[in-house]
Amino acid sequence: MNNQDFTATILVDQTARQAFDAINNVRGWWSENIDGSTDTLNGEFVYSFKDVHRCRIKVIELIPAQKVVWHVLDNYFSFTEDKSEWNDTRIIFEIAEKGGKTEIRFTHQGLVPAYECYKICNDAWTSYIQQSLKNLIATGKGAPNPKEVETEA
C-alpha cells in the first residue's frame, strides 16, 4: 500500500541550521496568529484563522538542523462535516544537506485524500511550504497570514 500522507519538498541554498531556525519561526511563514511556544520541546501553540480553522499543536521532536515534529492535539474546521479531521496527526519537517543545498521534506502524517479538507489543506500547505517558508529561509521574509485584529462588539 502506498503512503497517501501529504508531502512537499523544497531545496534551498541556505544551511540546515538556517532552515531549522526558519521552520521554528512559525509566525514568520505560517501565521502571525500563533499563541504559545513554537520552538521549545514539549511546547504548545495555538494556530487560528478567523472562525475557519483552529488547532492546538505540541512540539514533540526538535533535532537541531535535522528534524521538527508537531503533534496536533485538537483541531476545528468550520467548513467540514467532521470538525476534527486533523486530530492526532503529525506534522514533520525533515532537513538534510544534499549536493551543497538543503532539502526540507514536509509531511503531514495523517492528512490523506479521504479527508474532506484534503484539497484545501493540500493547496494551503503547498503555498506555505513552497513559497512562504522557502522565502523565509532564502530571504528572511515569509508571507504568513497577517495578525487578526480583535474588535470589540
TrEMBL record:
It comes from the Bacteria. Residues 27-137 form the Activator of Hsp90 ATPase homologue 1/2-like C-terminal domain. Belongs to the AHA1 family. This is Activator of Hsp90 ATPase homolog 1-like protein.
